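Both lines are quoted verbatim for reference:

——
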Amino acid sequence: MCCCAGSPEYTKTAENQFPTQVFINNVAKYTKEIYVTSLCIDYSKDEFTSFNGNIVYLCNDSGYNVKCSNNNTILKESEWFKKNRTWPEEGVA
């Protein structure tokens, strides 16, 4: 599965593009670890950049681990996120 942040492929409205603020608000109460395969730079020019790349989620009885082929930066720490979304305050959802 590929999840590209900020792509207008399915909607031209920026606030409705993945990941939406509603999605962030709902997921934030469970985890801050949101990863995306790529970021849309300019859809009209077919320009995308790899963000986390291939994302592998490993889970066993002792816990879990996420390994990404490009980097393990969580989305909320990215410049794209800081420009386009906000992380909800603790206890707010």
